[in-house]
Amino acid sequence: MARFFLTTPLYYVNARPHLGHAYSTIVADAVVRFRQQLGENASFLTGTDEHGQKIQRAAEAAGITPQQFADANAARFREEWDRLGLRYSYFIRTSESRHNAAVGEVFRRMQAKGHIYKGEYSGAYCVHDELYVEGEPGTPCPTCGRATEKLTEENYYFRLSAFQQPLLQFYQEHPEFIRPEARRNEVLAFVQSGLRDLSISRTSIRWGIPVPGDERHVFYVWLDALCGYLTGIGYGSPLPADQQRFHELWPAWHLVGKEIVRFHAVYWPAFLMAAELPLPRGIIAHGWLLFEEEKMSKSRGNVVRAEPIQRVMGADALRYFLLREVSFGQDGSFSYDALVARYNSDLANDWGNLAARTLNMIQRYFGGKVPYPAAGVAWLHQDLEIMRQAEQARDSLRAAFLDYHFARGLEAVWQFIAGLNRYLVDQEPWALAEKSDAESRSRLATVLHIAAESLRFTAILLAPVLPESANRLWQQLGLEGDAAQRIDGLTWGKIPVDQAITQISPLFPRLEKAAAVEQLRKLEAEAEAASLPPAAAAGAAAAPPAATPASANQAAPANQAAPANQAAPANPPASSAPAGKASSPPDAAASPAVPPAAARIPIDDFAKVEMRVGEVKTAERIPGATKLLKLTVDIGTEARQIVAGIAEAYAPADLIGQKVVIVANLEPRKLRGVESNGMIVAASVEPSGKPVLVSVPADTPNGSRLR
Ligand code: MSP
């Protein structure tokens, strides 16, 4: 059986997962389910990248050890994937001990072949991207644009320069190695412009894997993390079963975001060539999910989380939106409006309605049994056309998905669904049912038989993207097993006739758009407030997200032909996480309850925080956000717009003219779409976490710095 092994990037644990991370993992899950439905032995690995300066700093800022920090956030990633029903087979954390040994082994192999030497690096480094950058320190990082820092230290170097020609030759021999084409061209240009040797160890940080035999050094985090793809499936383990698994699965396909193609398409194959290990099969790069026109990322403060969406409309709706709306390989915009619009038009109206209509008519006109197509009666041209369209949808989806063109594949299935809806309108089975002559009755049987068989097709074709709803449809059709049947072997005419359908419930109850968008925004704001740093979130962080599904869910489905729908509107699927798992773990990075394990810091660290006295000039509520206020604060040199989670403790009018203390040098972030340029300092008073503003005497000049 053909094998297909895919990896997602190993996510940094400096923050909780957001929709950008979910996007990669959802794509991997859909691809693997699709490949399984082609009869392949397909699986995927995901995991977390836990070492390096970025994590070390984030842990310091939270006052806990890097390991505690990584434990808390790695658990969140895992829980998120479980909650979304993503079926990874392997999960690797780079702080696991099994991983240490494997990285050391790869290094020893590279060293044994003479590809490593010791030297000194002095130059620019981007901590955010953990990237060595050409040029003077301070030069903007080519990936994220942040100012680079000066780094001078003794390092082990990898002779990357020696791999320029072998890499170019490899790309030439494997034109499919990097996709899409645009990314391949970027990589070729980068390698052709010359490769410099790469520093692969650090002495100035401790949070990493020690270099065997020279433990003052820890490995460069990218060498460490990339090796996770090997360790996660057994490389370096002394156990024969692990070794065998590694040999069966490796090499992998790597699915990555476009910003990390260079690490995967240049450094990684060079490391593997040096260690004489097989090279990956290929790198599949996707674009970014944009929100409010920018890359969704924690540092920009424009993140959306998956959980509220899942709670309002189900994980399937999110999967469908991401794969249908984003043209794979390119950047795509996320918006609540577009999400709800797609849900209503494609899922509730087109597919959901088709299913409910058909099943209800089978229920009503044939006592709930899938009818036989009338014997001895020639099929009409329109009937044959549906058959043709079903097979065409199958072939188009298969070809498109094999090529990672998910939107195109789904579009083909929706053309079929639209054709089918038209067919029902044209054939008017409800009118046929009114007539009692034998011809009308046999025509009715044929039409509903064709519709039921078509539904079986849609369930199978959509199972990779909409697994939960495809299975619900499968069940309602009364079919055995699940909808994840073979796509390549899918042929017309296999629905067992005379079998009983089961209880009908709408696949996607229609949502009232404005209410659903409002509900999504509210849940997102609550999730966001729960992840704010303690002082800014004071008063907001303590509230757990609402546990009830959106009331919009309960809105009656807009399905005129399906009264059964209205009788039993089903809420979208609840959590698919295994029982016993907490859906909302304490936020170790932000929670004031975390013990300050590494509480003492050098004075220099404190000096990095610029706290100033300010005076509130304007204050107003943010529509729809119960806990947030938008303030303008005069800090002497300028008026700052700051969003603070204090609305439940302070009325806007009472704040005007009040002196406050703000943190002035935080990066801007957006809360509920409103930019915040700083943070108001407040005490968080237990047990409720009520915020109490820190103030200074009224005559303290605005802008005075706190030292
Ligand atoms: N730790 C490295 C990867 C090491 S792989 C051996 C890393 N981590 S990351 O958490 O910053 O991002 C990983 C991936 O998350 C990106 O490559 C991309 O796949 C996904 N995304 C993060 N933000 C994203 C968007 N806004 N949009 C789409 N995907 C995004 O880089």
SSE blueprint:
Blueprint (H helix, E strand, L loop, with lengths): L2 E10 L6 H18 L4 E9 L3 H10 L3 H18 L6 E4 L3 H16 L3 E11 L4 E3 L15 E10 L5 H10 L4 E2 L1 H12 L5 E2 L1 E2 L7 E2 L2 E6 L1 H6 L1 H4 L8 H10 L3 E5 L3 H14 L7 E5 L2 E3 L2 E2 L10 H8 L1 H11 L6 E3 L1 H31 L14 H22 L3 H22 L1 H4 L5 H25 L4 H10 L36 H17 L4 H4 L25 H5 L35 H5 L3 E11 L7 E6 L4 E6 L7 H4 L3 E5 L5 E3 L2 E3 L2 E2 L1 E4 L4 E4 L11 E2 L1
Parallel strand pairs: 1-2, 1-12, 2-3, 7-13, 12-13, 14-16
Antiparallel strand pairs: 4-5, 4-6, 6-8, 9-11, 10-11, 14-15, 17-18, 17-20, 17-26, 18-19, 20-23, 21-22, 24-25
Helix pairs in contact: 2-3, 11-12, 11-19, 13-15, 13-17, 13-19, 14-15, 14-17, 15-17, 17-18
The structure holds 5'-O-[(L-methionyl)-sulphamoyl]adenosine.
The major beta sheet can be summarized as: 6 strands, parallel
Report the sheet-strand fraction: 15-25%
Task: Give the radius of gyration.
Answer: 29 Å
How widely separated are the two ends? Answer: 67 Å
Bound molecule types: 5'-O-[(L-methionyl)-sulphamoyl]adenosine
Helix content: 40-55%
Give an account of the 3D structure:
The protein is of the alpha+beta class. The chain is 40% helix and 18% strand. It is built from 23 helices and 26 strands. The strands form seven sheets. It has a six-stranded parallel sheet, sandwiched between helices. Strands 17, 18, 19, 20, 23 and 26 form a six-stranded antiparallel sheet that branches. Helix 11 packs across helix 12 and helix 13 packs antiparallel against helix 17 (438-462). The longest helix has 31 residues, at 336-366. Residues 532-598 have low confidence and may be disordered. It binds 5'-O-[(L-methionyl)-sulphamoyl]adenosine.
